[in-house]
Design brief:
Layout (H helix, E strand, L loop, with lengths): L1 E2 L16 E5 L8 H16 L3 E4 L7 H10 L4 E5 L4 H10 L4 E5 L8 E4 L3 H15 L4 E6 L5 H17 L4 E6 L6 H13 L4 E5 L2 H13 L2 E6 L10 E7 L1 H13 L7 E2 L15 E3 L11 H15 L13
Parallel strand pairs: 2-3, 2-4, 4-5, 5-6, 6-12, 7-8, 7-9, 9-10, 10-11
Antiparallel strand pairs: 1-3, 11-13
Helix pairs in contact: 1-8, 2-3, 4-5, 4-9, 6-7
Length: 324
């Protein structure tokens, strides 16, 4: 799936007429990582009227060539969705100093490169706490796409810390699929954890995560969605999801380009209470939907207090990788 576009109006580029590309190795149809990149781009179009070039399913081996080809076309801002884009972006950015680059989720920076490395462990801490409060088996699970990604390790660490802070006896199982785009492998991984006693599973595995949710649904257990609100994939199974408010993150970068005060750095936004919250946070929990009346009031109260404590720094959620 790909969508192309140039500028809203013809003529010379101006601060109000940014030419933007959004590129990813994920799929815009994955209901997760790729989908939220596409949706964030649509939000930019809605707010600013920019026409954006979208490209998904870029092979890892072709990342550098893809970046270079788009830079040659004169894009003002190239947004890359995926940790693997970091090093290739630095290489290409040296040759195109007038092009601005944004890597999400990244840890690289240069004079014309910024990264956003959100503290996703803060929001998954809440999911771990919720799972520990609701689990009947005292066994919960996490399924990731690939263990080598720093942000994924942080996500798991936050989930585990939240669960153990609530109930130190909770057993937190973890497995990595090794494939972001295999619902079959995701389902196999989920079945294995369920057979080991897990009754709540958090996945961060792109299309493979859809297989996780399917397995949880078939086994009558509960799942947490990732990146976007995934309740619609299984309304009686997905209790809530953690959401990345990426369009808000992009909105912190675009005005810097328009106002010519873009400086290369790594942004590390954390938790916010909801999508409309003020401040720099870009992570929040989705509604409980049909589970709203099934979660005890005391659990909701505790969850809200934990969120406030994280935002107010009364609770520090640790990750394996800290770039702040």
């Amino acid at each position: 799936m790909a969508q192309t576009g140039i500028l809203k109006k013809s003529g010379t580029n101006s601060p109000e007429q940014l030419k933007i590309a959004i590129l990813t190795d994920a799929l815009f149809s994955d209901a997760g990582w790729g989908a939220f990149a596409y949706n964030a781009g649509q939000e930019i179009i809605s707010r600013h009227g920019f026409q954006i070039n979208f490209l998904d399913n870029v092979s890892i081996s072709d990342i550098e060539n893809t970046l270079r080809n788009y830079a040659k076309k004169g894009y003002d801002l190239i947004i890359s969705q995926g940790y693997e884009w970091g090093i290739p972006t630095l290489k290409v950015a040296k040759d195109f100093p007038n092009t601005k680059f944004l890597v999400f989720t990244g840890v690289v920076k240069a004079s014309n490169v910024v990264s956003i490395f959100p503290k996703q462990q803060e929001v998954t801490y809440l999911l771990g706490a919720l799972a520990a409060m609701m689990s009947k088996t005292h066994v919960i699970g996490f399924i990731g796409g690939d263990e080598k990604y720093p942000n994924l390790n942080n996500i798991y660490e936050g989930y585990k810390q939240g669960a153990l802070d609530i109930d130190p006896s909770t057993k937190v199982l973890v497995t990595y699929v090794g494939d972001w785009d295999s619902p079959y492998k995701g389902k196999e991984a989920a079945v294995s954890l369920i057979n080991s006693g897990a009754d709540f599973l958090l996945h961060v595995a792109d299309s493979s995560g859809q297989g996780v949710i399917q397995a949880v649904k078939e086994r009558g257990k509960y799942a947490f969605g990732a990146v976007s609100d995934q309740n619609k994939l299984a309304p009686d199974t997905v209790v809530t999801s953690f959401i990345l408010d990426t369009d808000k993150a992009y909105e912190q970068i675009i005005p810097r380009i328009q106002n010519d005060n873009f400086t290369g750095e790594v942004y590390t936004p954390g938790l916010e209470l909801n999508k409309n919250s003020t401040g720099e946070g870009i992570l929040y929990l989705a509604p409980f939907h049909s589970f709203d009346n099934k979660i005890p009031p005391n659990v909701k109260t505790k969850l809200s207090q934990l969120a406030e404590d994280i935002i107010n720094k009364k609770i520090v959620v640790h990750g394996l990788y800290d770039v702040s």
